[in-house]
Amino acid sequence: TVAFQTELLQLKPGEKVLEIGTGSGYQAAVLCEMGADVYSIERYQELHLQAKETLNKLGYYPRLFFGDGFEGLPQHAPFDKILVTAAPEKTPEKLLNQLKIGGWMVAPIGGRQG
Asked: What is the C-alpha R_g of the chain?
């Protein structure tokens, strides 16, 4: 799914990307490698700390945040692209409002049942 979601983003080097759900940091590393300016939020503190340590050891320095990804990062908006790795029940409006005009969001809408 990382490759598929990344392909859907049609990322260009230098674009500002918000990732919702840092997890292990793998997706963030891929985005960094592609030249994105990466901001990533993780809701589980242990994962957040582990991802930060792992990414820094590998030489990647995305801006990592601990918190509710569905709130986004309005203080750092607007974003060219937003990648949601969790599955919300419906389109997260707060995130849509943080996109640049013409920006894209890739998200698996529908929750666990969808």
From this structure: 13
